[in-house]
Structure formats: C-alpha cells, structure tokens
Amino acid sequence: MTAPRTLPPPASDRRLAQPERLPLLDVQGVEAAYGPYRALFGVSFSVPAGSAVALVGPNGAGKTTVARVISGLLRASAGTIAFDGQEITRWPAWRIARAGLVHAPEGRSVFASLSVEENLVLALKGVNHRAQAEALERAYGAFEHLARRKDQQAGTLSGGEQRMLSLAKVLALPRRLLVVDEVSLGLAPAVVDEVFDAMRQILRAGTSILVVEQHVERALALAERVVLLAHGRVLREGPTAEIAPEVSRLLPTGAGTLNTSPAAPQQPGGEPDRPEAE
Question: SS3 string of 16-78?
C-alpha cells in the first residue's frame, strides 16, 4: 500500500522556518572609555547587508566613539562586535580594514603630500592594472571635479574636495561596509549635496553604510534605519519611516542637545518617551 503523500508546508510557514540572515555588522552591549572616563554604555544595534544606517545624536553623545570602536581605533572594554559573521572585537584596525570595513573619520583623511590620483592608486594596492583603470574611471565619473585635479597635491584641495577624495577611494574599490563620520562637517550646502549623492552611488554599488551625522534631515533622507544615541546610550533604533518623527522631535534640525520638552498629546496607549539620563 502506498504511503499517503505529505504535502509541503505553506509558503508562509517555509519562510518562517528559514533561519534569519545575519546582519553585516552586529554591535552588542559595547562599552568603551577614554582612561577613567566612560563614553559608551551597553550600545547595541545592527547594520543589515546592503543598507544605510544613520547614527545620530547631540554633541557629545558618543557617535564618533562608536565609529572608532567599530573600526578598531579604540578598544571596547565590554561587549562584542561581529562583522560578516565573524567576531572582530579584538581585531586590530588594519585587519578590520582588510576584511572590508573601511572608516572615513571626521576631518580630512587623505595623504596631503600625495596627488589626488596617487591617493586613489594607494587605495587600490594589490589590484591589477586593468581593474585599477576601471576603478579610477569609476571614481572620477562620480567626482568629475577631482578628475580635473588628479595631479594636484591633496593637501592643497579645499575641505570639501578632500572629503570627496576620501569617498572616491571607497567608490573606486567598493568595500563591504563604510563607516563615515560627520561627512558634512564644515562643508558648503552645495558640496554636502554632492557628497551625499556620492554616498548613494556607493550604496547602489553594494557597499553598506553607517553614517555618523549631526544633520538629522540629511541622515534620515539617506538611511533605511536610524540609531539615536545620547549620553553614550542607544535611546531609539528602528526603520526610518517608523521613528523619524520621534527622532526629529528629540533632536531638532541643527540642535546640539536633546529636546526634552513634552510632545503633543498622544492617543491613549502611551506617553511620549523621554531620553534616558546619563
């Protein structure tokens, strides 16, 4: 007698049965300090592969410290950091960069004594000649302004141009994750537009982005998820569409401090959340 045929589970059940895809970057319970001064307190969030996440917060919130810990420039005192399924908490910065996590720190991260093209070529070390030519074409295509200055010493570029060069190095040879810190700092609005357009190109090319940014409206326009940091702690994390109104209320455009004034009356079911005290 033939055994009764077993039907496969519904598609919805099969989707539920599949293991969740690991995030590209997973930060769990991270703490850090500068000597006796604690800067981060149990910071946890993740960056899904192929996405942009904005890390926003007031001055002194710990945003730059988070970026430094992730990239290995500052050692975490507690917690774990995983990148592409591997724990990298204790890895040195050079090994993290080699794994595909690149950090564009606040300021002008270029070699001032080298030309624009020499800076780009240095970022392409180990790439064959044909791939290098393609990478340079990709970088200059995104930043035509740099193409006209390829022989100019990087240290003589304007602040905005140097920031573009930092991003052009990533666009030339795409990495898995770009951590970019205060990309708009000190730049004219027109230059900021160009820089954020370049970041969108980097994202479309397949590089995930963690953008540390004080200009909330710029960050929210780029990112699919937002992490709000204050006093070294995560106050909010979630999809931009869901928490953008709350982030905008707590951190108005251009504000260097949290807005703790009560929000407008809500529907029954909850009072407005208040930022956690340090």
Answer: HHCCCCCCCEEEEEEEEEECCEEEEEEEEEEECCCCEEEEECCCCCCHHHHHHHHCCCCCCCE
Work out whether the CA dihedral 249, 48, 169, 43 comes out positive or negative.
positive
Instruction: Name 238's Cβ contacts closer than 8 Å, sequence gap at least 6.
Output: 225, 226
Structure token digits, residue 69:
């810990």
Ramachandran region of residue 173, left (φ > 0), alpha (ψ -120 to 50) or beta?
A: beta
- In the three-class reduction of DSSP (H, G, I as helix; E, B as strand; rest coil), residue 153 is classed as strand
Q: Which tens digit of pLDDT belongs to each residue from 162-218?
A: 888 888 887 777 789 999 888 777 777 877 888 888 888 889 888 999 999 877 888
Q: What is the pTM of this model?
A: 0.77
Residue 277 in tokens: 């005290």
Neighbour tally for 133: CB within 10 Å: 12
